[in-house]
Write a structure and sequence with these properties.
The chain has a 7-stranded mixed sheet, with helices on both faces. The chain is α/β, with parallel strands linked by helices. It is built from 21 helices and 13 strands. β10 and β11 form a beta hairpin. The structure holds 2-acetamido-2-deoxy-beta-D-glucopyranose (7 copies) and zinc ion (2 copies). The site of one 2-acetamido-2-deoxy-beta-D-glucopyranose has 4 residues, from α10. One 2-acetamido-2-deoxy-beta-D-glucopyranose (NAG) binds next to loops. Converts sphingomyelin to ceramide.
Length: 599
């Protein structure tokens, strides 16, 4: 979810409408100089107040994805980002202490109404030591590079040679392989984005002024009497433990012959301003133990989500040796848990410790490649420090796929963050190049993170009218936010591992909470083939389906409803055909400028 980005830099739409701002550079200078004076004198000049009035974030926009800001508003966000970083990097270079920087940034964050003081304080306390470490050890890092990495937009471009890089990809040609279907199928379950909240309080406060609600201790801010549901809540609330247990139980009791369970990450809650090593470890250990107890001898292939890290999103490169700052604790924990439960062989340990990724072959002719794509997330501050192929993962991916091709294997790739625009541009580009080269053996990809029921269709590089790969998104087991909880069952070919159909299973959270004493009524929401009336899930059929989406409003609105997992809480918002098309355009993935033509 996007809240974090907003928390750090976003500001007001008012800016877009004010004619006072003519020139961006001038604006950065003025704002920087006013922050400077304010920090030095502790007093708010009239100019400072005027700027703040125009730049302050309305609380109603706290949770709006900055991606949805366009034009001048996106300019303005970039202006604030650069002003704030320019100013504080300068202060730091002149010797300001970490504590002084922290208290000033918290004051500014609160004063600009970016979040409550408690949240500003928590977020800065967790993140500043890492940001300062990066700024201190990399003196040539500029505010415009930092903001360019975070926003990567037209108004906030990334212009820095160090931030462009490539990996070595075998030039081919791809080996021709016999990819015929077999008559037999296997069942694969995908569970993703559980977001278990140990602080979840049924009947607590569902509408608080913090990034996530329904948590113990938030009653006092309960102003409009929105009460947290027993099984979860459509507001910004994560999952209570009994809902986590329920979804796992439901899957075990309902589906026979499960060959594999893919768990694609995000166990930890959205309390991003107050995570801790201890809290994350407890949630991770408890959830994986429950998954193990539930499925016992069914193999589970897990990956980590951006929320498993502490602080959230931050995955450090190997060269950072301080245990306070690096990610070794998480890689150690995951390697131990995943291997000790018997899910992964010992041979996976070295790459998990290297960066949270691994590969194995569960069966002859079939390979799973599990990535830690969280390193590419544009809010992973460590990208500023070491942008080039973090933890050596993409080179390893290219090499692993080359070997798989030689060995005649079909491959499934698991990755939490989808290869969309939230992923650092060079990482995304190199990833797409690799997928394109090995498209014949990668028969499916599985993502999580967005919580929506969606997919990515990859257009081939040399023939941009052909689809040559697909990434399915598993949705989310949590209702966060305004969604129904779900999981997916993939029916795959037992020989080439291509997905032949998908069942989305969910429950109506409103109904579940009305009958809180009973377990939720899970039901098959739809089969992809039936719902969209397509003969199979071949790339040709998916291509036809995509063309139909563009023409057929009825089909498009069906896709839109499923995208939000039929939750009234989301569907009650106005969305006309143009608005729905934006959700269709998210499907299109390519190296070229395909998506820009989609609207
Ligand atoms: C900010 O807003 C005030 C009115 O609230 C307006 O007079 C002023 O011109 C705006 N622009 C700047 C850059 O201060
Ligand atoms: C900044 O420093 C890094 C090494 O710390 C170097 O690789 C990079 O090229 C430098 N960037 C610029 C713009 O000088
Ligand atoms: C918050 O509300 C819940 C449910 O009504 C109640 O059980 C709990 O005691 C309340 N907590 C506080 C601190 O008031
Ligand atoms: C499970 O798989 C076995 C062997 O593949 C098959 O005989 C059996 O009918 C399957 N059971 C169900 C319920 O699909
Ligand atoms: C995980 O929890 C179990 C108890 O359920 C405990 O024995 C084990 O030490 C825990 N592991 C970690 C790494 O905390
Ligand atoms: C691209 O693919 C389409 C459909 O598969 C085919 O008709 C066309 O000839 C291809 N073009 C090139 C340049 O390969
Ligand atoms: C969910 O249940 C509520 C309450 O019974 C009902 O109003 C709503 O239409 C249901 N939604 C779906 C998608 O079935
Ligand atoms: Zn998530
Ligand atoms: Zn995520």
């Amino acid at each position: 979810m996007q809240f974090y980005k907003v928390l750090f830099f976003a500001l007001l739409l008012k800016v877009a409408n004010s004619n006072g701002i003519v020139n961006e550079d001038e604006m950065i200078l003025r704002f920087s100089s006013e922050i400077n004076n304010w920090v030095k004198t502790g007093e708010e000049s009239e100019e400072f107040q005027r700027l703040l009035d125009n730049l302050t974030l309305l609380s109603s926009l706290h949770r709006v994805d900055w991606h949805s800001y366009t034009g001048e508003t996106s300019n303005a966000i970039c202006t604030v980002c650069r002003s704030v970083f320019d100013t504080f990097i300068e202060f730091r270079k002149k010797g300001m202490s970490a504590n002084d920087i922290k208290s000033n940034v918290i004051k500014l964050c609160t004063r600009m109404n970016i979040a409550t003081e408690r949240v500003c304080d928590g977020v800065m306390t967790l993140n500043l030591p890492i940001i300062l470490y990066i700024v201190d050890t990399k003196p040539n890092l500029t505010a415009s590079t930092i903001c360019g990495v975070v926003f990567e937009s037209e108004s906030c471009p990334l212009i820095d040679d160090e931030f462009d890089w490539t990996v070595n990809i075998d030039s081919g040609p791809p080996k021709l392989i016999d990819a015929d279907d077999s008559e037999e199928i296997i069942n694969i379950i995908q569970i993703t984005d559980i977001h278990y909240d140990p602080n979840y309080e049924p009947y607590g406060n569902a509408n608080c002024d913090e990034p996530t609600c329904c948590r113990r201790g938030q009653n006092d801010t309960n102003t409009n009497n929105k009460v947290a549901g027993y099984w979860g809540d459509y507001n910004y609330c994560d999952s209570p433990w009994h809902a986590v247990v329920d979804v796992l139980e439901q899957i075990r009791a309902t589906h026979q012959n499960i060959s594999y369970v893919y768990f694609t990450g995000d166990i930890v809650d959205h309390g991003v301003w107050e995570t801790s090593f201890k809290g994350n470890i407890e949630s991770i250990n408890k959830t994986y133990s429950q998954i193990y107890e539930t499925f016992r001898n069914i193999p589970v292939y897990p990956i980590m989500g951006n929320h498993e890290a502490h602080p959230v999103n931050l995955f450090a490169p190997k060269t950072v040796t301080s245990n306070e700052l690096n990610t070794q604790w998480l890689y150690n924990l995951m390697a131990d848990l995943w291997i000790n439960f018997g899910w992964l062989p010992e041979s996976t340990r070295h790459t998990i410790l290297q960066g949270g990724y691994y590969t194995l072959s569960p069966k002859k002719g079939f390979r799973i490649i599990a990535l830690n794509s969280n390193v590419c997330y544009s809010t992973n501050w460590w990208l500023w420090y070491q942008p080039k192929d973090p933890v050596g993962q993409l080179q390893w991916l290219a090499d692993t796929l080359l070997q798989a091709e030689k060995d005649g294997e079909f491959v499934h790739i698991l990755a939490h963050i989808p290869s969309n625009n939230e992923c650092h541009a060079p990482w995304k580009r190199e990833y797409l190049k690799i997928v394109d080269r090995y498209a014949r053996i990668i028969t499916a990809q599985f993502n999580g993170h967005t919580h929506n029921d969606e997919l990515l269709l990859f257009f081939s590089n040399d023939n941009s009218t052909t689809i040559n790969n697909v990434a399915w998104n598993g949705g989310s087991a949590t209702a966060f936010s305004n969604l129904n909880p779900n999981y997916k069952l993939y029916i795959a070919d037992s020989k080439n591992y291509a997905v032949k159909d998908i069942e989305t299973w969910m429950y109506n959270l409103t109904l579940a909470n009305e009958n809180a004493a009973q377990r939720p009524l899970w039901y098959k929401s739809y089969s992809f083939k039936e719902e969209y009336d397509i003969p199979d899930l071949s790339y040709d059929s998916l291509h036809n389906w995509l063309s139909r989406l563009a023409r057929d409003d009825d089909l498009l609105s069906r896709y839109y409803r499923n995208f939000f997992k039929r939750a009234e809480a989301s569907l009650k918002k106005e969305c006309d055909t143009k608005c729905m098309r934006a959700y269709m355009c998210r499907i299109i993935t390519s190296l070229g400028d395909h998506r820009t033509h989609c609207s």
